[in-house]
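Q: I'm writing up a methods section and want to include an example of the input and output format. Could you take the sequence below and give the corresponding predicted structure tokens, formatted cleanly so I can copy it straight into the document?
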Amino acid sequence: MTKRRHFGSIRKRASGRYQARYTGPDGKIYSAPETFERKTDAQKWLSAKETEITRNDWTSPDAGSVTFADYSAQWMKDRILKPRTRELYDGLLRNHLLPTFGGATTLNDITLAGIRRWRKQRLDAGPAASRPFGPVTVGRQGVPPAPRHYGNRR
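A: Here is the clean output for your methods example:
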């Protein structure tokens, strides 16, 4: 008798490797980014995904494909801000962040090293160019913060 998994599914491919799939909290079916040589490796991967979901640490694997421009625009729409604060944040995005991270830059493309380089360039350019760091460091509200699972931490 075959034991049925309580979370996700594993199937053996024609290649002999194992594919793991699960249904995310959003109702969509997700596959592991690679197949596994051993069934136990696929089971471990599914267990890790289940733990992420249980702890509310899970984010959609597709989430990082959102552009920074779209994410920051949605972030601004989702905030209840006083008019002057909204004006300040719009200016910070338009003048400091979108010129570097806007366009086709996805959240996955933004790395910690890239942010550090950008910050150093802004600080080296003088006081006017380093203006965004007040709201960033004081309230963390000035820059749309990506959920911690978005982007690469390099």
